[in-house]
Fold:
Amino acid sequence: MATAPGTGFQDPSAEVLAQAAAAFGLLASPARLHIVWALAQGESDVTGLADRVGGALPAVSQHLTKLKLAGLVRSRREGRRQVYFVDAEEQSAVVDVVRLLVGRFAERQATAVPAARVRGL
Structure:
């Protein structure tokens, strides 16, 4: 790990950066971003999420599996149902970024200010 000159802060390892990039890559999908947004508002089962995000049940289930493997979403069993949620304590930074970014774009749309498209960063 290298230290940023003059700051005393340690730069993250290449492995940590790769893991973070993979997690952000998962959120690059509008469907997955919508799922995280919805779960940040409250827990839900896969049927409720499919209805809310307008996706097919198998597709939403696959998205949840990927988000779960990345540690962005958690689940617990309630009888025969699997209930999904975002652990607010463990993922507070990710949830904050999703809320902030999506919220800003939603505000821009509501006030009819054209949102800039971000590409190729």
In short: Strands lie at 44-45, 74-78, 81-85.
